[in-house]
Amino acid sequence: MTAEDAKYIREQVMNHNKWFEESIPMIASENLMSPLAKEVLISDFADRYAEGLPGKRYYQGNIYVDKVETKAVELAKKLFNADFADVRPISGTVANMAVLFAFAEPGDTITTCALAQGAHISTCEFGAFGQRAVNSVNYPFNEENMNIDVDGTIKLLKQVKPKVAQFGLSVFLFPPPLKELEDTFNEVGCLVWEDCAHVLGLIAGGQFHDPLREGVNLISSSTHKTFPGPNHGMLLGSNMTEEQEKKLQKAVFPGVTSSHHLHAMAALAVTLAEMEVFAKDYAAQACKNSRQLGESLYELGIPVLCPDLGFTRSHAIAVDVSEFGGGKECAQLLEDANIICNKNMLPRDTSSVRPSGLRLGAQELTRVGMKESEMKEVAELIARVVKKKEDPAKVKEDVKALKRQFSNIQYCFNAGEPAYEYRKLVP
Ligand code: DSN
């Protein structure tokens, strides 16, 4: 690496920062950290090591790391009303791997959703489930309401008697029907696990659902989607035995992590503290925004899934753009207009490379203070690109003008500070 190479890389990062500052980011799995969380993220914690649990480390130098981690666990348990929390997984997928290491042997049956129904890749044959060689069985799915079919699932659970029943989606529009399945879980005696990565911030704010009160024993999650923390992971539990909790902790370390990215763990702790204060308002607004976005797009003639159900109960909506050239083409045109989203498979799709859908999330726009009236504007901008096929370069100027009014981060202790300020630390 020469100085020129380093300069080149720095320039590209700065280009990226500027681009996002002028864009409308709608990837449903992304968000913005608070300035305080970012400050902690670039602290000396980033340069250190810790292994094991607070007070039982393999390295010296962890006096303050232990204090922060102990506090993070306490905050996580309080915010999610959980009996157990582990803040060490370094991502959502790593958290999922820890659950698999702890509770599933190769060959064990786990029930889960399929990729085309919106499942996360870690539950697929070519993801962590496949790597652990579990026997993965998919729930019957109701495409009309984008949710698991209750009767079919009760039948399936009784038939295959899974060791673990797993829930959670990456196109997570409606809560899984856990209450309706609770008796069957008890009858079968399976561990109930939900990957709540997409909706963690909503759960923190009392929206979407409350899995640990609906029969779920164990939540795995990333901490940077609707929950606006750092790129990291977390595990939460209730009604687990002490033996199960210990097994899970061992699966996290030394199972799937060594050190656990202490800077991210500290930034997570800050976000947990902030969410205790701000989650309720933030989550309620994110849900209102996504519904409004769905309604506005639908009124503009763009098919949004589940109109009869109000489009969504989460931060995200799924849009069928097959009549406008498909997900790949539309996502590219939108990117050309500085509207950043992703192509997505819809239930009947067979190709993940050329799917018919787009997934749009309102959580990051909520984080910078956009409300329902801005969602109407965003829908107009999307329709101009996707349906009217206006020149994206022209639409881009209007995207920039809208975004310019929303550059301050909200729902955190430093609310009102520029959302992208930390990106300017390097002049
Ligand atoms: N792949 C991410 C998403 O966009 O849903 C989740 O890890």
Write a concise synopsis of the structure shown.
It contains 14 helices and 16 strands. By secondary structure, the chain is of the alpha/beta class.
Structural features:
3-stranded antiparallel β-sheet; alpha/beta; Aspartate Aminotransferase, domain 2; 427 residues; 16 strands; binds D-serine
Topology (elements, then pairings):
Layout: H1 3-21, E1 24-25, H2 35-41, E2 52-53, E3 56-57, H3 63-79, E4 84-86, H4 92-103, E5 109-112, H5 128-131, E6 135-138, E7 141-142, E8 147-148, H6 150-160, E9 164-167, H7 178-188, E10 191-195, H8 200-204, E11 218-222, E12 233-237, H9 242-256, H10 262-299, E13 316-320, H11 327-336, E14 339-340, E15 342-344, E16 357-361, H12 363-367, H13 372-386, H14 392-404
Parallel strand pairs: 1-14, 5-6, 5-9, 9-10, 10-11
Antiparallel strand pairs: 2-3, 4-12, 7-8, 11-12, 13-16, 15-16
Helix pairs in contact: 2-10, 3-10, 4-9, 6-7, 10-13, 13-14
This protein binds D-serine.
